[in-house]
UniProtKB/TrEMBL annotation, chains A, B, C, D:
Database matches in Gene3D superfamilies: Acyl-CoA dehydrogenase/oxidase, N-terminal domain, Butyryl-CoA Dehydrogenase, subunit A, domain 2, Butyryl-CoA Dehydrogenase, subunit A, domain 3
GO biological process: fatty acid beta-oxidation using acyl-CoA dehydrogenase
Protein name stated in the entry: Acyl-CoA dehydrogenase
Protein species of origin: Litorilinea aerophila
Stored SUPFAM superfamilies: Acyl-CoA dehydrogenase C-terminal domain-like (SSF47203), Acyl-CoA dehydrogenase NM domain-like (SSF56645)
């Protein structure tokens, strides 16, 4: 039993933290009050600095220009990046690209790697992932309306997707579509297919207005129509009917990545809350920090964040030791635990800021509205609680109890 | 003891409800995805319809063109209006104008009434209320930096205000300013002064970006600078040094008004939640409504809203029977209770909607982000809990216990 | 809309309150540290005083020696009685006798009334109600193992019951037993049968040890075996197969009665909490009442109790206006709301008392352990939430939504 | 970073678990329905078996007959012991003796060790710790009424203590008393003094009735009067005025010990909850485990217990690495976190058991009532939250923020 931070990661964490503090946090007011697209030039510059500093793509193997960190090592870095809404993007480990890179790395053909993975890894292009459909519950992945029908050497795709993060400006999409509707196993009916976004029939209908803003470029979530959209069959990722399996493989570490990032948001919100409490006077002699209610929020938040971080590190550690399948219950656990801790910490931080907390003068309001989705995407709380309970109860039912 | 709705209000409630359903709810998509300002022409038309229907300004005496409802009677109407974010505006009982009308009605001179109240009552102009300052905690009203110094027959105002709702496009502001800095009683140092918004030195610095949107016109919250802003002393509302007393008088019913409106939002969110639960299929045979978690949210929300409504009606009834001062503890109670019920009901309604709940395709996300302020403005939860506890404990301390 | 206490009840409430304060609360230390049975002589004396004072059996019609209060009127009295664990017993309106009296009054034959109701109403005997069975979930009343088979003019009962409150020392039990196992409607298979406790074959197996104490006499919950227990068929209450209907009829007002009593416990706990907070010094200059956490508990408890009381009064009012069936959703609502408010208020009151709160030197610990059952008996929270949700969602499903 | 259980502990844990399952859990019905005192003979036998098995006193150095486990190693064992209310006693690591042993080991004179520590370590005698006083808040340890005045070679003690766990049957008490009332530093006024329980003037007034039971022997909490109680000065533990420092030293690991034990209770309650859910039928085809509410309680409990355990292990690890002072914030964190997780898990387990959960047929009700004290003793939640917040905010205040 050893809770210490791995020594080789410590200096990386320190440098990443400094970069976030010095280069990203000062940029936040522009991010919070302008469009992401208008920031692209300055973000490109920052990305170049990150590369030059040897901190690029910490999650990627060195062969792809990354730092080659393990999952638990990356956890510490990801937390630092999460402290700013710009962190992961500037270090090129933002969702959904990070998941798409993993898929391509493990299941892509050499040609797919060359065409899609390499420029992604270099940060030259972006991608999106088109799975969720407005007509079907995301919590039941066997319900899916999008189809890909073989025609000659091609697939012809038709369907309706939404919540494709970063579709606006993406170079290509990985699209989940039913390729084998007749398969007996309902989990083997769909495949993942790479669709370049300029393919005729691929339409970004809109950037969905979410919590008051449609956003732009990477900071957006697209609604997509696929109408007789034709791509070569060689664009299929992995084997036919493997779509769900790949999605599961993608989602396991993906959820850990979200949780790591959320811990970083928690820490930043906690820091803002404490700074405000210790600097805001309520009267000539009393500070906000003197209020017991504020002290309790701080103590409860500190405890909740620390407990959440340990659960995340433990899940990542178990996944490293025994694989994603063995760690699936731990992953479901952190998914709902951390998403809820995050929401509560943000809520308290806003309350401590009073009216200021409602404004876009701090990043709290941004996270408050956008990270509400953390309890919904990649499986809502209710699905993950069911995963945990089913696993636990399974042992009792097997034992002949029921 | 009689819990029935007053018979003379019932038909009004029914008609208001129909108007909201038929005329306002269909307009919401434009409100949620466009600017308030762009809606002004259609809103003006709707206001004319409301007048023509004899439903205008339900809270105002008939002498001012209103329906002359009592507070408890208005509660039922306000709840119906609250079901849409456009309701109160279209019926001309929106904050902060409703509070400003009350102040002018009870404390305005005849000239002030003619110049400011009458066009407000007719809906020809709008107004704002400038009290909160970024540099001082709103929870401690004796801390205030804005001053109004007498100079000849005028006041010269200097100061910095923010969260002046609807300042953008307002005809005048009622400004709290220190007029008597030397007064021994710290609660008698400020006065309320009417400042036309085109007065030189009165600057709307910005519509504050709140939860992602600066908003416009009535749907905005302004930051204001007052620099040597000169108005005649006859623009003072009430006596010198009465600013806090008037603010208190304004806030009492003002808080009840917010609570009534929040009940309406709760009901709409509840309705959306149930509609979604009963219409969304999770599989070929199961509806969202079949999930026990959803059923529990519905039952708990139903109970919480019903309890909150009774508390609001009781507070309004007590205020009618015994006055605002006698009802101040009841008012503080509902302020924090209803604001929290509202936040929880909205949160559950969003969760039931899944990804859709995050979008601006329903009004839930709008309320989720903007009504978070309900736990902050007009006194944060913590202040109101203190008011209740101080009152309760006072009786025990007086009893010699402490 | 009128929230005032009915004038004819006010003086009764005042007198009851004084009696509880002067005669019952001083007796609590003996109740909390001794056995109920040892108190029987002094309780008999107090009951005589209550009769002499003209306050006996406030819920019963005057024809049966009671005060003839309506349900909403009784609510105010019941709250006062609930302030002491001895209140309802001393005024002869304790569960389960109060429910048995109602059943006998409305469904008893003249002979049954003479034999069982009249001495109950006079407080000369006690009774119990034997429905729940250890082998079957109380939440599903159609599952029942106890049978009553006709044999000549008799019923012969066999079965196993528990949680028969006050079985120890009771004169008779009303027993739910399956009389018509072949009935198609599963809700029409059982009947209620009066079984004198000295009938051969009726055995009180034990007073169940509950939260550390088996208790005695009225303050106990019995486990009962019925083995070839023979009673005349004329002991059946109501028609054959009507058992569930009668149980429902009994439970409706029964739940309101519990809620009224719980409000009284809440008020007493609240009073103890405030008294302690205002009298306990934390240092030479600071009282427990100065702690913001304590103030928040007090404010939140005050709000929760007031909201709960209004919901209870409203449910009682609706039941009076429209009958128990029309008010069933309101009754389910208060059942889970008030039980939870009670638990939370008791928990906070204990925390404010510190170590003292754990002791039997106050009644808090007694209620903390015994009223935990309030979320279980007469339908657990989960059943009542389901009742509310089913009713609400029914309207949406019927509307064609699902 | 390594989350695995230390290999040398694994076999010990396995054997302890088996012993608890086979020897202690079957004894619980007698413990829950009888007196602790009546169990002493059988417990003595079990203690002999534990010694014979080489599992005695796992926390003690081998020199004192123990297993010599480190704190993190003991954590795993303590959790197993915590699964039964009898575990720690039978393995001779029960509070308050475990803390007294630690004090004597580190601060006792050779004579004190021989006279008091050695028989304690062998389990031949028991001891108690008398610090808390009814007249003063335990949360403010500088308020203390008990005095020890020097008289010749003796101390003469006078005072009033309560909540001295296991005073009934204890051989000696360690008493906190003011020895240096004139010391400027209020934390250096008291000393700890060993007082044999048969010393004239030492009176066990009563076993306090707690949550319905006064208990007996080790399972009791005593109220004590010291009246001119005379002991030699050599009975002082540590230096004069060191009482608070020793109490702090005692309490640090003491709190970790409680938390470890609570995790064990959580696991047992969780196991009972799952067993019940998987074995209780709600209808002919549905189990309690099929209810989503139950599944959510199970998932949330699993997550909360796992997070709590990691926090406890981390605090113990930090204490091992850097000492108790460095880990004091972590210790305060787990104190309030685990006590609350425990209360919630017990509450849910009871709800899943329905009426059975209220009875003493399972240990749930015992823990529900007695472990409520976990949020009070050794510092109430509020004190520990304050410790955490003060530490966190200190860094912000020092930074010049306030």
């Amino acid at each position: 039993m050893d809770f210490s931070i791995p020594p080789r990661v410590e200096p990386i964490v320190r440098r990443v933290r400094a970069f976030v503090d010095e280069a990203l946090i000062p940029l936040e007011p522009r991010f919070l009050n302008g469009s992401f697209r208008s920031l692209l030039p300055v973000l490109a510059e920052l990305r170049a600095q990150v590369k030059a500093a040897g901190l690029w793509a910490p999650h990627l193997p060195q062969a792809y220009g990354g730092l080659g960190l393990s999952l638990t090592e990356f956890a510490h870095v990801s937390e630092e990046l999460g402290r700013s809404p710009l962190g992961h993007y500037v270090f090129n480990c933002q969702a959904p690209d990070v998941g798409n890179m993993e898929l391509l790395m493990h299941y892509g053909t050499e040609a797919q790697k060359r065409t899609y993975l390499e420029p992604l890894a270099r940060g030259e292009i972006r991608s999106c992932f088109a799975m969720t459909e407005p007509e079907y519950p995301g919590s039941n992945p066997v319900l899916m309306g999008t189809t890909a029908v073989k025609d000659g050497d091609d697939y012809v795709l038709n369907g309706h997707k939404w919540f494709a993060t970063g579709a606006d400006g993406a170079h290509f999409a990985i699209v989940m579509a039913v390729t084998n509707p007749e398969a007996e196993d309902r989990h083997r009916r769909a495949s993942q297919i790479i669709v370049p976004c300029d393919t005729p029939g691929f339409t970004l209908v809109r950037n969905i207005s979410i919590m008051g803003e449609p956003g732009s470029d990477h900071a957006s979530h697209g609604e997509i129509r696929l109408e007789n959209c034709r791509v070569p069959q060689e664009n299929r990722l992995g084997a036919e009917g493997e779509g769900f399996r790949l999605a599961q493989i993608r989602l396991g570490p993906g959820r850990i990545h979200h949780c790591m990032r959320w811990i970083g948001i928690c820490e930043r919100a906690f820091d803002l809350m404490c700074t405000r409490a210790a600097s805001r006077k309520m009267s000539s002699s009393a500070w906000l920090a003197d209020q017991q209610a504020v002290q309790h929020w701080i103590a409860e938040s500190r405890a909740a964040i620390d407990g959440a971080r340990l659960l995340v590190l433990h899940a990542a550690w178990k996944m490293e030791q025994e694989g994603a399948y063995a760690a699936r219950v731990e992953i479901s656990t952190i998914k709902f635990v951390v998403a809820n801790v995050l929401q509560q910490v943000l809520d308290r931080a806003i309350q401590v800021h009073g009216a200021l907390g409602m404004t876009d003068d701090t990043p709290l309001a941004y996270w408050y509205r956008h990270e509400r989705a953390g309890r919904i995407y990649d499986g809502p709380d209710e699905v993950h609680k069911w995963v945990v309970a089913r696993h636990v109860l399974g042992k009792y039912r097997d034992a002949g109890a029921a």
